[in-house]
Amino acid sequence: LDIVDVQSFEGEAAMKLEAIARMGWTGKGKALSNYAYKNEEGGISPQIILQEILEDKKGGSECSKIAAQFHFTLIQIIDQIAKEEDIQQLAFSGGVFQNALLVDMCHSYLG
Known about the structure:
Helix content: 40-55%
Strand order of the largest sheet: 1-2
Strand content: 5-15%
Number of helices: 4
Order of helices and strands: HEEHHH
Distance between the termini: 30 Å
Largest sheet: 2 strands, antiparallel
Number of strands: 2
């Protein structure tokens, strides 16, 4: 998304992506759509997601919209896997969940 070419500190690109995504999410409520993804044995293939992101970027979509949809897609993947595995309670940890937008989206969409 042309956010950062070279990081000057660990997490810089992720922090900037989160900030841009928040601009695309604020006020949108549940109107966001997710990118298509394929849940394969052994994990989620990023190929389809990345292809759609590139198409949106080439098509002139705003970076904030693309970034918000990427975050929302992660939430949809979490939701799908939890349902498939019949998981009723989720717990998150690690550096990825220093991303306050992901945490906010988890609360908003996953309860």
